[in-house]
Amino acid sequence: MSSILQPINNISDRFELGEQIGEGSTGYVVRAQDKENRDLDLALKVLDPRRWGNGFNRDIKDFELAHREVESWASLSGHRRFPRFHGGYYEPDLTHYICLDRIDGVTLRQDLDQRLQHGNKYSPEEIRCILIGISEGIHAVHHLNRVHRDLSSNNVMVDGDLNVKHVDLGFLTAENMLRSLFSTTCGTLGYTSP
Amino acid sequence: MALWDILLLEARVGQYSVASDLYALGGLWAELESGKHPSDLMPLDLDINPLLVLRYTLQDAHDDSLFQRLVHVDPRKRPRSVEEVICYLQDRVEKKIISLPGSATDKAVTELPLVASSDHSSFSSREDWNFPDKSLSQVILDILFSEGKNYLPEVVLHCIDYVRDGEFDLREQFILSVVTPMLHSRLSSNSIDVSLKDLERQFPEHIFGLTRSELKNLYETPCMYQHDNDRYPCLSSDISHSGFRSMIEHAYRGSLPVRTLISLFKTTREHSRANYTGLNQEKYAEYLQCIRCGELDERVADLEKKMRYDDSTKSDPHFYAICFTLEDEGFIFPRASKGDRFTENTFRFNPSLTVCQLIPQKNLIDSL
C-alpha cells in the first residue's frame, strides 16, 4: 500500500488551519484549506499525543493507535457513509493529522436538539432512514473486521436531507487485537452494554 | 460461558465486539425515539442495563422486536450482524417513488432494496462468501448490466474487493478520482444522471479545481498513468480501490446509470496509455506451466504471499489471481510483453478493468 501517512515538519506548511469545528476523544478537528488545492473544503482531524495516555487506550502504543485510525479512514474513504480521506500526516512531535472532506451538517445530537427546541421529533420513517444510514457505515466497519466501539449521536453527522456520515472512528479496533486490550475500556456512557 | 461472564468481558474488561456496536445502535434508536441521551434516561449503574429498562418504558409506543433484540443484555441474543439490522429496517421502509431530475424523461423508479430477501440466506455468512449458482465473472457482469439487483451489497463489494484488493497500486486511475467526488456530489443532490454536461451546469466556473475545458479534455482523453500532477493538483494519483468500489456500488444502487459506468470504463480503455503492462510474457508462461502441473491454487497463494508488499516489482498478485480465475472461467487473455506500451491488451491483465474487458467480449455494449 502506498504511504497514506507522510511525515511533515509543520502542518501549516501545507494547510491553512481554520477554526475548531469538533472535538473527540483523541484530539480535535479544525477546518482547513490545502494550499496546493484551495478548492477543497477540508477538515483536519488532529490526533494530539498529549491527550493520549490520559485514560483511554493507554495500553496501546501511541503511534500504533494513530496509524490505525489513519488506516481506518483510508480504508473507508469512498464509502458514502464516511467523509473522503485525502491523506495522513505526522509532525516530529508525533502529532498526527488526518485530512478529510469537511461534512456540511450537524451532529445527530445537535439535529435532534434543534428539533426538540421546536417541539418536533423524528418521524418513524426518518428514524428508520437514519438507522439504515448508520448501519451501513457500521457494516462497512465490520466488513473491515473491526468494531466501532464508540457509536453515539455525537459521532454521526447528518445534513438537511438526513444523509448520515460517521465522523469519529477514534475507537476503531481490530477485533483480533482485542485479546491484548483487555484492560482497555471505551465507549460512550449509555451506549455501552452493561 | 455463562451470561455473567460474557457481560463481564463485554463491559468491565472491555471486550467489544460486533454485538457491542449493535447494542450501541439500539441506544441510538432509543435516543432518536425518546429525544433523550441514553445515559439521561437512567442513572448509570453497571449492574443495571438502562436500555433494558428503557425497552419497557418505550414498549407502549414502540413495540419493535428488533429494538428489543438490539439492546438485549446477552450479546448472543442480539442480531448476528448489522446486515440483519439493515435487512429488517429496509423491509419496513415503504418503497418510495423518486423522480430523477437529471433524466430526459423524468422517469420514476422504485428505490432499490438494499438486500434481496431471497438471497439473504445464501450469503449470510461473511466467512463463506461464495457464488453458488454463478461464476464470479457472471456475477460481476450481472451487476454491471443491472441484472443483478438482487445481489446483496456485500456480494457486490466482495466482487470488487476480489477484482481489486486495496493492497496494491492501481492508483493512477485518476479518472476515478474525478468520478468519485462527482458521484458523491450528485448523490447528495439526489440527481442521478451523471454527465459532464450536467456537471458543467452545476459548476459553471471550476469543477474540482479544473476549468471546464481542462476537465472536458481529461474526461475525453484520460491518460491514466501519465497525468501531470503539477498541472492538475486536485487529481490525486492516490486513488484507492474504494473509488472503484464506490462506482460499482452507485451503479448497483441506481445512483449511477450503468450506461454511464460502462461508458466511463470504455472511454478509459480506449484512450488511456501506460507503460505498465500487467501480466508479462514470463509470468504468463509461469501461469500456463501451473495449469499444466495442476498447481494453480498453490502457486497463486504462494505468489500472493511473496509479492504482496514487494514494491520492487510491478507484478501484482491480485491481478495474477484474478486473471487465473477468469481464465479458468473461460475468458481468454492474450499475452503482453514486459516493456510494452499501453495497448488494449494491457487492460486484459489489469484486474480493475478486467470487468470492462469482459463487456466487449459479450458484445453487449452496443445493445445498451
Describe the structure.
- The complex is a heterodimer of chains A (194) and B (368).
- Chain A is an alpha+beta fold and 194 residues long.
- Chain A has 4 helices and 11 strands; from the N terminus they run βαβββαβββααββββ.
- Chain A has 2 domains: 5-101, Phosphorylase Kinase, domain 1 (2-Layer Sandwich), CATH 3.30.200.20; 106-191, Transferase(Phosphotransferase) domain 1 (Transferase(Phosphotransferase), domain 1), CATH 1.10.510.10.
- In chain A, the strands form 3 sheets. Chain A has a 6-stranded mixed β-sheet. Chain A has a 3-stranded antiparallel β-sheet with strand order 7-9-10.
- In chain A, strand 9 and strand 10 form a beta hairpin.
- The longest helix of chain A has 20 residues, at 124-143.
- Chain A is globular, with a radius of gyration of 17 Å.
- Chain B is mostly helical.
- Chain B has 19 helices and 4 strands.
- Chains A and B meet through strand 4, helix 2, strand 5, helix 3 and helix 4 of A and helix 1, helix 2, helix 3, helix 6 and helix 10 of B.
